[in-house]
Amino acid sequence: MKQKVLIYRCENYEPASIAAIVKEGMQELGVTPRGKILLKPNCVIAHEVFPHAYTRAEFIDGVIRALKERAGDGIEEILVGERSGITVPTRFSYKNAGYEEVLSRNHAKPCYFDEEKQISVKLSNPYRLRDSMFIPKPVTQCDCFINLPKFKAHPWTRLTLSLKNLIGIQDDRHRLVDHNSFLEHKIADLQETIQTDFIAVDAIVAGQKMMLTPTPFPMGAIIMGINPCAVDTICSHMVNVDPNTIVHLRLAAERGFGPIDMELIDIGGDLPLREVQDRNRGFEFCMEHIDSYFKDTGNLSCTVGTFPESHSADYCWGGCPGALQEAIHIFKMYYPDVLQRMRKVRYVVGQVEGPLDLAPDERVIFAGDCTRWEGTLDGKHVKIEGKYRSTKEVDENRTPSNDMLLKIFGSLLECYANTSSRYIHAKGCPVSVAAHVNYLSSIGRIPNVNFDPRNLIPINVAYWNMRFHRFMNRFL
Ligand code: SF4
């Protein structure tokens, strides 16, 4: 049977119009939500300096109104669950995104996945990367899972849509496991952990290039469907991308989670695909290796070596290089001239052979557990030894907490202890975006955005609130 995907015209964030469109979409697709309903938006970050990174509150407002009209008394509870990115407490992002007000007005509840118990779910797909994955308890308990991604480009996976949105169900402890050259495989694994009942993609204003700091692209569309592969396939075509080049989509389709072939998908709605494709010709991506991306742009230069996994020996798309790009773009939102104002930094990643030919005042960040280099710095012999562990060697039951404060103070202390050294080796696989911000701040002498007055107090209030509720949830 063919999967159906609907593309509807929607030019602005007006909740009543969104509700009418989503209700029509549910009717057309035969979706009738029941029981405990869990909505999963993309709220990777929300802040005045990150205005286009998240599913908008007005969109959630419209979807909840549509759900209530469609399901009536069949609804037991509506939860809106997410784990924000870069270790920022989800409470902080929800507040900034305006979710709290919308949820309270609609008698729906926030569900912060970083505060919930994490449950190990067994996987059985023959092509799986791992045998089990951790997901938050409320995801395992809902009767109806509704995926509400934001339509965005992504510097690691080209696009982030409904399949990739599931990365946001994992807490900090488990999110970075396999968040390296296996990221696309991990996204495919996640599809086995939950059955999606309905998808509505916020493409009213889409995001281009980056995932945390995208530039806005008015796309004027809402895309709906039930099958995530079918929805992501149509979304790829909407921006003139061959869906087979979205690796996690191809993997998910190969594993039997849905179609990638247009012959197996029926398109409906009131916005013809051809018209959208023409309108979206200028949609911008950023899939560039960091050595060319930062070449001649300022005081950051990159030396990229080779990587341990044979399927991506020339580059690690899901790990440290992309995290560096995102971190620099975060700084740019605060200090647009950051690449000029920072001290000279060389970023070295992967197995690198030969001298680095540093400028006299240039310092080095050796990034990640796979990085190896041997040579002479300031007349001294230096050997950076890789401690990369393959997927089989990483036990998802024994992972570091990746706590926000521990990360900030850990990396700052490490930089302080190496103040007089030419280099620092940032450990991790991957070194997260958050850790990159801290290392770059110290080594490049850039003000740390974590200490920006707009963030310092609210983020710490949210952090301690999160810690308290996480502790209390242990006893539930
Ligand atoms: S250490 Fe970084 S660059 Fe190396 S494999 Fe891991 S994530 Fe990729």
Topology:
Elements: E1 3-9, H1 15-29, E2 35-41, H2 57-71, E3 75-82, H3 90-97, H4 99-105, E4 109-112, E5 118-122, E6 132-136, H5 137-141, E7 144-148, E8 150-154, E9 158-160, H6 172-175, H7 183-190, E10 198-208, E11 215-225, H8 228-238, H9 247-254, E12 265-269, H10 273-279, H11 290-293, E13 300-304, H12 320-334, H13 338-341, E14 345-351, E15 363-377, E16 380-384, H14 404-417, E17 423-426, H15 433-444, H16 453-473
Parallel strand pairs: 1-12, 2-3, 2-7, 3-4, 7-10, 8-10, 13-14, 14-15, 15-17
Antiparallel strand pairs: 1-11, 5-6, 8-9, 10-11, 15-16
Helix pairs in contact: 1-2, 7-9, 12-15, 14-15
The chain binds iron/sulfur cluster.
Residues 180-181, 307, 316, 319-320, 349, 368-370, 388, 429-430 line the site of iron/sulfur cluster (SF4).
Largest β sheet strand count, sense and barrel closure: 10 strands, mixed
Uncertain regions: pLDDT < 50 for 5+ in a row? none
Q: In percent terms, what proportion of residues is strand?
A: 15-25%
Ligands, deduplicated: iron/sulfur cluster
**What's the total helix number?**
16
Radius of gyration: 22 Å
- How does the overall form come out from the CA principal axes? globular
What's the CATH H-level superfamily name of the largest domain?
A: LarA, N-terminal domain
Under CATH, the topology of the largest domain can be stated as Rossmann fold
Question: What's the total number of strands?
Answer: 17
Helix content class: 25-40%
State the name of the first-level CATH class of the largest domain.
Alpha Beta
The whole-number mean of residue pLDDT values reads: 95
The domain count comes to: 2
CATH architecture descriptor name of the largest domain:
3-Layer(aba) Sandwich
Structural category: alpha/beta
Distance between the termini: 42 Å
